[in-house]
Amino acid sequence: MALMDELNAQMKQSMLAKDKVTLSVVRMLKTALVNEKIKLGHDLSEEEEKSVLATELKQRKESVSEFTKGGRDDLVQQTEAEIKVVERFLPAQLNKAQVGDIVDATIKEVGAKGKQDFGKVMKTLMPKVKGQADGSLVSSVVKEKLS
Predict the structure, then answer these.
(1) Which PANTHER family match (predicted)?
(2) 0.85 cut: is pTM over it?
């Protein structure tokens, strides 16, 4: 598991640097990966690892929006710092133009004609961009292209 080795190395580095935020996030990521491994009953594939990390990132992004609504700027800053740590371990995120290109190719692939084919497009598209693009961005681009 290359990711687990990377997390262990980062954990040691964070301990030496006394970087509490990074250390805390790395420990949470390791725990999430181990829990997923136990749940599935086998070593995680690279795709499964990315999926766990994407879930952790999504949870933190949702927390930021909730904290912002609640006026908790202290928690917003802390959670944004955690997001930066999680993003270090994920592959580079696709921008809107790149997602648009993949969406166009997928629409042609499944032969989608309009909004009624949204589900078909998303079902085929999501495995291609898993861990590389936010689901809400992908969804909005698909809706835009099918309109």
Answers:
(1) ALTERED INHERITANCE OF MITOCHONDRIA PROTEIN 41, MITOCHONDRIAL
(2) no
Look-up of token digits 């136990």: 38
CATH topology for the 96-146 domain? Arc Repressor Mutant, subunit A (1.10.10)
CATH 1.10.10.410, the chain: domain bounds: 96-146
Q: What is the mean pLDDT of residues 9-24?
A: 92
Q: How many CA atoms lie within 13 A of 142 on its CB side?
A: 27
The architecture (CATH level 2) of 2-89 comes to Orthogonal Bundle (1.10)
Q: Which residues, in sequence order, are CB contacts of 122 under 8 Å at separation 6+?
A: 138, 139, 142
Q: At what angle do helices 135-146 and 118-129 cross, to 10 degrees?
A: 140
